[in-house]
Fold this protein.
Amino acid sequence: MGAPKKALKRKQGISKLKPDAESSKNEESNSDNAVDFGTEDLLAAELNGDGDSTDEEIEENEVPDSDAEQDPTIFDSDDPDESLIEFETGSEDNDSEELEFEEDDDVDDDDDEEEEEDEDEDENEEEEHENSESEGNTPPPKTNNKSLIKSSIGKEDSSNNSFSRRDNTVLDKMTERQHKSKNQIEQKSSNMRNTSRQKNSQKSVNTKISSIKPHITNLSSGADEYENDTSDEEDIRNTVGNIPMKWYDEYPHIGYDWDGKKILKPQKGDQLDNFLKRMEDPDFWRTIKDPQTGQDVILSEADIDLITRIQKQKIPDAQFDEYAPWVEWFTSEVMKMPLRKFPEHKRSFLPSKVEAKKVSKLVHALKMGWIKSTAELEKERAQKNKDPQFYMLWQTDDQPEEMRRIHKHIPAPKRHLPGHAESYNPPPEYLFDSKELKQWNKLKSTPWKRKLHFVPQKFNSLRDVPAYPRYIKERFQRCLDLYLCPRALKMRLTIDPEVLVPQLPSPKDLQPFPTIMSMVFKGHTDMVRSITAEAKGQFIASGGDDMTLKIWEVATGRCLKTVPCGGIIRSVAWCPNQAISLIAVAADKKVLLINPGVGDHLITSKTDQLLEIIPQSDVIVNERVKAAVQWEQTEGENWQKGIRGILNHFQNVKQVTWHGKGDYFATVMPEGQNRSVLINQLSKRRSQIPFSRSKGLIQCVLFHPIRPFLFVATQRNVRVYDLMKQEMVKKLLSNSQWISTMAIHPGGDNILVGTYDRKMLWFDLDLSTKPYQTLRLHGTGVRGVAFHKRYPLFASGADDRGLIISHGMVYNDLLQNPLIVPLKRLCNHESYNDFGILDVMFHPIQPWVFSAGADATIRMYT
Amino acid sequence: MAGKSTDSDVPQVQIRFITKQQQFAVPDFPLSVPAPVIAVELNTLVNELLKESIDAAKFIEFDFLVCSEFLRSSLAEHLEERGVSTEQVIDVEYLEKHPEPEPQDCLIHDDWVSAVAVCEKWILTGCYDNTLHIWTTKGKHRLTIPGHTSPIKAVAWISLGEETGTFVSASQDQTAIIWDWNISGNSVDCVHVCKGHERSLESVGVNYDSSLMATGSWDTMLKIWSASTQDDDDGESSSKRTKTEHGKTRTPKVTLKGHKEAISSVKWSDKSEIITSSWDHTLKLWDSELGGIKQEIPGNKSFFDVDYSPLSGTLITASADKHIRLYDPRSTEGAVVKATFTSHTQWVQCVSWSTTQDYLFLSGAYDNQVKLWDTRSPKVPLYDLSGHEDKVLSCNWSNPKLMVSGGADNTVRIFKSKYAMC
């Protein structure tokens, strides 16, 4: 019964392990086979890899079951320490055993022999156990056994099984004590038997172990695994499971058997008992306590033998031939035909595209000479070594130093190479003569002006040349220079100055415009402050400091008429209404309305008639207005002179300007405070003061040619008032100190403002309140500006005597900004008291311009 | 002469002398002269040749026409300017030089003399002091005629007989007055006052048969009036009304509208054609019978004066620059300006053709100069007739022997033009 049992046992172990490891039925069958044909079984186990260790495991596990109750403590417990302690307490004297087991823990693989013995015992024990105790196998192992037996062994096993069954039932009723003793007895007997029986089985095991050994050593961690794995099989008698047994320390029992009955702890006995036992029992030293069952287990001879073998670090199986000839199960040679089931993949036959690309790249690079083959490199190197080697003596001078830390480093400027003068033996012409030396010495205070910073010296030989005394100083100064004068890349813009000049049409294409002086109107005896032209352009009128108004014929320059006005004439304005022949003249505090009596006689006479009659009006003149201005009818002498009306202002009138229709005219008194501006109506002989508050020193006013707007220029700004709505529409910011005069483009959308700070500002009312363009053409304050009524021309006169004609084209297309091209500077007036040109005016039809100068002349340019 | 400068390095030019003045004809063979030869040297050469041929004792001054322009620089330069090859034989036409006009007289007025007209031996002047003056060519003042109320801008003779003379004056007082002058009695009578212009008159022109006159004015109108002293043409009512006033008021026969600005000069080119110059940069040719514009010649400056030469059929104009331009109204294609005469430094105010010679004309300008021009010499005038101390306002060469000009220096200068030929 023993031998087959053992085999069965083994199988159990294998089978138990297998599910853990792989759980494949094939291998089970293999193991089955192994039972039948010894070596084959082993082989199979080996193939499985885990085979032998499983064996051990099983044995370990079963040890407690069989003989000694202490066995399980060794193999089974999760905590090796714990088990050790227990072990120690249990059997202190069994040093050797202890050691054995400890070692067993550490080196599972070595105690095969012992285990083998154990196995045998185990089997016995198992049997006995099964017989005596009803605990029996847990159902799964049972079935396992069953199946295994069925498959492999057949009858034997079945009988065995049935036997064990019976045992289980019988054993239930036995007392522990009995049980224990019985066990012991049985164990003994079985041990005896085992020794004899073992041999046949162990042989095979030995061979197995020997073959496996190298594998086992590798699987060092296997032991733990098995301990855990076998845990459920441990408890075939005690069903408490894998728990620390100390929990049952305080109870009389140690767990429960299969039927739920308590497994009582065996009688411990006192020290005396213990002592007696030791004295009496010859097997005491080999008795260990099974912590699971609390039973004492007496280790068999085989166990002891195994333990000692392990202790001695021998192969546990005594029969194992360590030096058996090597069976080369797997050849080490490389076989020609690979052992592969599937054919090579298709791509392994096709050339790789990626590789081809890489190769072609390399080939290309080789062709182009970007890379060189090692052979070529070798060749080159050889060539290089063969040739004489040269190097640049001044290489460092040529190449910029590598200063990686400095971004865009600029190397220090190189010093000049020494010349002949620096030579220790210069040609005699380089040596200073006395004069040169004197000169050199003279520049002592300004050494940088010297041509040479040293005096050339002549020595007979290089030996005589002394150390250069200024070496350190010069080096230091050079360093200072480099350090204190930061070097920077100068970005020199290569912009052609021509490019910066805006693309302006050539003045030639902008003709006609006045180019030469054609006429000088002489007759005034003092500065001519103001000029005005008749609408047809046949006559002009002028007035100035000589207090006379003069009427001139344009074509001939003939003064046709002179009207004394009794005051410095600051402004004259011809009435733009062609049905009236009238000139408004601002002479000191008076504004005279003068009929020049030139042109159409019908009109002049009509004008006279018109001004003779005083229109009757019911409107009571405002006190404020009355204080500012009074209308006066003229008679007698004044009438004879042509004066048809006088407006007596309370301040000096600086400017008089007509509205486009010729009925209204505005007068400006800069000192008039809040009554600076008056608007007078000719037809009703009435005046109004449009502004109640003064916004500053009003310089001049201007009527919009079309719309009812009034432009009022103070010192800094130009305000645009809507006379109908009586509100300010716009404020043009001149950004200059003092506005002198202004002119409006006949279109009414552009204003030219002249300032005393030499500027001319072109305002485009459609664009913004800031100047569209600022023209700085004059060297001094601008005194007069004027637009031509028909030609795209404007002119400006200044104190620098210059009259500048410019092309100022205003396009009907609102998207196109005005084009301004300065054309011509005419400078014919003479300076008088730092005054040059005081007024500028265009001929109303021809492209001719008139300038009134401080030199008492009016000049016409065509 | 030729041998005088036969240096080998000086290029030689082959010339052949020709002339239209038969009395100075020289043998017609080519001569070789050095290229840089100037007119004076040619002159001596011609005189030498003449001496050989006709044995004329007198030294005659000639002018030389090469390529129909007067030789004023050296021959080489002259040829180079005109791009003529020096390889060929060059025809050099020579003609007797126009003799220098001699200042004859200076008639002093009280004011600017703005208009002057000569007829045979009488000189009529208009002044800025509103008066007309009649002088003899000998410089004798015959008459002062007040009547206008404004400066007189133009005067013109209508007819001149043994006993009476008729002339017209245009003034800034918007009237033109036709005067009848009794020579022997030395009395003048205002025959007609031509009223109709709305602004000052600038010029007046009388046609060749003295039947019509035209006036141009600042009111841009051209008005045609009857120039006859008899008031047969007008209706009775108007003459009756005007008789009550001073003289007889005459109304225009035709008013021609077309100019945009003042008409500065009016000239009759034939019986019915009027040529006007205006400040609006145009010349216009009017048909007085049809009353319309025949032709318009645009310029680029205001025109101040125009004169028509019946001999050459061309126009010369004075405009608001220093150039005198020669227009040919007959040519329709190409440049209308045939030549530009530039020598004046200021506005040219008046021009006047010679009545006898196709090439000569007179110009007066604001640079105080009167210049005698030959159209064949556009760069350089023949002579500068200086003498005026102020702007020259008018000039007249109706009498071929007298060049008369009036200026702003209150004088009328008379230059005697000696006849060069014929």
